[in-house]
Amino acid sequence: MAKAPVVPLIMVWFTLLFALCLQVMPLAEGWQVYRPEWLGLLFIYWCMRAPDRVGVFHGFVLGLLLDLIEGVPLGQNALTLSVLAFLCALVYTRFRTYSLVQQALLVLVLLGLVQLLEQWVRTLSGDFSIHLAFLIPSFISAVLWPWLATMFLALERRLFS
Amino acid sequence: MIIKPLFSHGALPGYRLFFCVLAASALMFVDQRFTRMEAVRAQLSMVVAPVQWVVSLPSDLLSWGTVTLSDHQALLDENQRLREQMLTLSHRGQRIASLVSENAELRRLLNAAEYREVDFISTELISLDNDPFSHQMVIDRGHRNGVYVGQPLIDAFGLVGQVTAVSAYSSRVLLLGDASHALPVRINRNGLRYIVQGSGNYDALDVLHVPDTADVREGDLLTTSGLAGRFPAGYPVARVTSVVHDPGEPFAQVRAEPLARLQRSRYFLLLFPQPLPYAEIAIWDDSFALSYETLQSVLQINGLFPLSADPSTMELP
């Protein structure tokens, strides 16, 4: 397997900001529950691809941006995304040896855990009832993962090698 | 070639995570407890303004595209319809003017306190909240326009919600339907006062603590009572859709439907229950300004369709 090229950090941030835009794109009422976790997906991708450059602090900053846009208490998404980065740093060595399907399963677990954490934080900050619907985005994201990962890897090879 | 050690950063992510979790928790705590964070938040929101702008681009493009590409006849029809609507409204406005003066006179006769006109500015929707578990939206007026936290917002049909956060050029509005929103109302028919709380749906509100014997019927109009001092009195809020008397429950279960089109309206009015400190505020944006041509066309239609032709559309609310 050819050595994957090093992607400049500015490109990483560009794609992350693009994912942020997708994440907050307005959707029709009723469809919002089915929105994939774009930001979570792309953040996992970069955490796994470049674990020595993209990590917990990136998650914190991205989370703060998302908090500001969504108008939730400042720090809520910052917390969940830093935890996500930490989880990625724990498993990235194993993750790289997995097949795409296994990777998708692990993505489901990671995103599901992070979503659960987010729901807990929400119950702390106000009246809020946990519903199982919060797992739907994680499922959809996991299904999207193989395509996303393949596409980004191919793009990287074409643009930066 | 330098060989990179596999576990180059060792325990570092753990420490970083610890630091970030602490920082995030502190931020959340401060944000919840201290109102001073509003200002900080307002400043920080400037950073994400470009993202919000980019996000609203597709829908703007789409609406621009629909106007540009829609066919001539449809535009003409719409124009005609709008002209007729404007005519009806202007007629209504004339009658309201005379009623207002009559009302003021009657109040003076009775020595009752006079109503004050409520100031307002127009505003437009920037984005709806993308969080399926809460009901908020962002509008295009901020503290530069005098918007403040707690300010009521209406659309053409009724009360929409209140402002919860303000940044320089935009603000965030909590809608009536959100489960964390409640306001005091009175029944227009008999003056009974209740609290209306959102149910987490756009199309239903709960009227709380209604005794089984209270005179509440389907179809009753609920208007703001003005008792909390936040919303001015007399704005329509909702219409009662169902009253269920369950002998096992201490209160009747009363549901109401918001009159405002929470999901469909795009233009809103921000009300100023307290008079504005400066008078020269531009009430109508240029998007609302009536051009000379529009006025001309209204006058022209006025000639074509006499006002008394359709009395059914002219009854007062």
How is the topology of this model organized?
The complex is a heterodimer of chains A (161) and B (317).
Chain A: H1 9-24, H2 38-49, H3 56-70, H4 76-97, H5 100-125, H6 136-160
Chain B: H1 12-33, H2 37-69, H3 72-110, E1 119-128, E2 136-139, E3 152-154, E4 159-166, E5 171-175, E6 182-187, E7 193-201, E8 204-210, E9 221-224, E10 236-244, E11 252-258, E12 267-272, H4 292-304
Antiparallel strand pairs in B: 1-2, 1-12, 2-5, 3-4, 3-12, 4-5, 6-7, 6-9, 7-8, 8-11, 9-10, 10-11
Task: Compose a concise summary of this entry.
Chain A: One of its GO terms (biological process) is regulation of cell shape. Chain A is mostly helical and 161 residues long. Helices cover 72% and strands 0% of the residues of chain A.
Describe this structure as you would to a colleague.
The complex is a heterodimer of chains A (161) and B (317). The longest helix of chain A is centred in the last third of the chain and has 26 residues. In chain A, helix 1 packs parallel to helix 3. Chain A is mainly α. The model of chain A has no long low-confidence stretch (mean pLDDT 86). Chain A has one domain. Chain B is α+β, with helices and mostly antiparallel strands and 317 residues long. Chain B has three domains: 53 residues, no CATH class; 89 residues, no CATH class; 143 residues, Rod shape-determining protein MreC, domain 2 (Thrombin, subunit H). Chain B has four helices and twelve strands; from the N terminus they run αααββββββββββββα. In chain B, the strands form two sheets. In chain B, strands 1-2-5-4-3-12 form a six-stranded antiparallel barrel. In chain B, a hairpin with a 4-residue loop joins strand 3 and strand 4. In chain B, helix 3 packs across helix 4. The C terminus of chain B is likely disordered. The interface between A and B is large, with 48 and 49 residues.
